[in-house]
């Protein structure tokens, strides 16, 4: 669960003409009010040790009813870029870190020209849109795809390492992006909804669904479970000892009452 806590560390104000203009936190789900566009979630981990493999990222998205990001066209690519640009703008404490998307291939070490055609989307999308960086994919043992996010790296032959795609070994650790079906009504009463313009369409709205206080409390409480159990055991032991002492005291008083009466009677007889 410490991994989940790291999701809450990245935040930014998303503003500009025709783009997001609300605070979005890494780990939030972003939905469009027109109910036609998918929802998205940027899962950014500031701690390198908390980042995940391709399969872990895939399972994380699927466990929430979504899938790793598939991209249908350049417009959707630009939308994701806009979200990442605002999420990772200067001053948010977010540094370099690529993002897993749902593109991968099931094959062993192909290096031929047919290799790029072997890639498929994990959510079953038939989209043929690709945004490879120069000389990518390199294939070989690299079968899973990331969206570059290396803003501090020196540009390469294909320009800055930003938002273009690269194949990587599937066991490497990265951030990831989930994609969900459009949501009609927020499912949680504690969720907070924001409205703002959709990039590239000044008449559409975006709903940013905030996780709310209850999930955040879960992230705090779960690591403290051992301490809570220890306190519970100590409290139970204390109660048991108090009850045992009280019972022993009552037994002593009960047993000593006849003896006290006999001593009193004998004392009276002696005086007489």
Structural write-up:
- By secondary structure, this protein is of the alpha+beta class.
- Helices cover 31% and strands 23% of the residues.
- The protein is built from five helices and twelve strands.
- A hairpin with a 2-residue loop joins strand 11 and strand 12 (201-210).
- The longest helix has 47 residues, at 225-271.
- The protein is elongated.
- GO terms for molecular function: carbohydrate binding.
- Its main location: membrane.
- Keywords: Lectin, Membrane, Signal, Transmembrane, Transmembrane helix.
The low-confidence parts are 1-24, 187-220
Our measurement of the CA-to-CA distance between the termini, rounded to an integer number of angstroms, reads 82 Å
Average pLDDT for all residues: 74
Percentage of helical residues?
25-40%
Q: Count up the helices.
A: 5
Which helices and strands, and how do they pair?
Layout: H1 2-6, E1 11-13, E2 23-25, E3 29-32, E4 39-43, H2 54-63, E5 67-68, H3 74-87, E6 99-105, E7 119-121, E8 144-149, E9 162-168, E10 175-180, E11 192-198, E12 201-210, H4 213-221, H5 225-271
Keywords: Lectin, Membrane, Signal, Transmembrane, Transmembrane helix
GO molecular function: carbohydrate binding
Pfam families: Lectin_C
